Amino acid sequence: MTEMPPVTQASEVARAKINLALHVTGRRADGYHLLDSLVTFCETGDRLEIAEAQENSFSVSGPFSAALGAPTDNLVLKARDGLRQRLAAAGIITGPVAIHLEKNLPVASGIGGGSADAAAALHGLLRVWKADLEPQEGKALLLSLGADVPMCFVGTPLAARGIGEDITPLPQMPAMALVLGNPLIGVSTPAIFKALERRDNPPVGALPALSDLGGWIDCLSALRNDMEPAATMLVPEIATLRAMLDAEGALLSRMSGSGATCFGIFETIEKAKDAAAKLRRQRPDWYFCATSTMSA
């Protein structure tokens, strides 16, 4: 048997995170909001290339690379450094790496771009460094990088509660055809939380065992995104975007996360692609993408 060469590089997709439902159910004494969310992930996303190198480096390209802040503030580097410190504490030596991020998703748009990048970086670095963390150390690292990073690290349909750390996989969610849209207007998450009318909304509750798209549409129609009314007040284009998705035949539309990205669920990927093409012609200055979610 031919011996496989050692892994010296890794390629990872940082998949867009979609909040199919997002209920704000409370607020902790430290100011963190308690959430109850149904989450899935898309085929589309950013891409990371990680390789062993002579020295550490980080580069960025892609259609939304210019919208990123200073490279030293990027969550990918915080993930790299945090993982390296924890591995060093466990006696594991890690060499220099070159990381390249292809930024394909709009920045600060409610689809977990930075968190997904950090989670993908951790997956790739663990492969390149041929290492692993103890479960408790891994959980601590993920949560230290942000409330969305643990769910992005899982990367499959799930329910997330608490501040995002209480995760339950959803084994029966089907793949869904989506159109993602964003008016490319920034939305401040703190401003949205401040504008919420209430923070003690009912939770998502028990989910029926569903494996068909029609059943999930019925289920999701009874749920909501509690952040959407406040976000729409700050960015009225969100309502316009949802109306456009509905007009193209979306079975259900909703804002994801804290916005301003909205999604429309379509019957087939062909219908989603057709709708995305029409929407781009209507608003060529906005972001539209047809994609599919990952099935459980």
Account of the 3D structure:
By secondary structure, this protein is α+β, with helices and mostly antiparallel strands. The chain has 9 helices and 10 strands. Strands 1, 2, 3, 4, 5 and 6 form a 6-stranded mixed β-sheet that branches. It is globular. The two termini are 34 Å apart.
Highest-level CATH class of the largest domain: Alpha Beta
User: Which CATH architecture of the largest domain would you pick?
Assistant: 2-Layer Sandwich
Question: How many structural units, i.e. domains?
Answer: 2
Count of DSSP-assigned helices: 9
Shape: globular
**Structural class computed from helices and strand pairing:** alpha+beta
CATH topology of the largest domain: Ribosomal Protein S5, domain 2
What's the SSE pattern? EEEHEHHHEEEHHHHEEHE
Instruction: Look at the structure and give the mean pLDDT.
Output: 93
- Low-pLDDT regions: 1-5
Q: What's the total count of β strands?
A: 10
Which percent bin holds the helix content?
A: 25-40%
What is the alpha-carbon Rg in Å?
A: 19 Å
Relative strand content: 25-35%
Pathway: Isoprenoid biosynthesis; isopentenyl diphosphate biosynthesis via DXP pathway; isopentenyl diphosphate from 1-deoxy-D-xylulose 5-phosphate: step 3/6
Binding site for ATP: 106-116
EC number: 2.7.1.148
Family: Belongs to the GHMP kinase family. IspE subfamily.
Describe the protein's topology.
Elements: E1 9-27, E2 33-52, E3 57-61, H1 75-89, E4 97-102, H2 113-128, H3 135-145, H4 149-154, E5 158-162, E6 166-169, E7 177-182, H5 189-195, H6 213-221, H7 228-234, H8 237-247, E8 252-255, E9 262-266, H9 269-282, E10 287-292
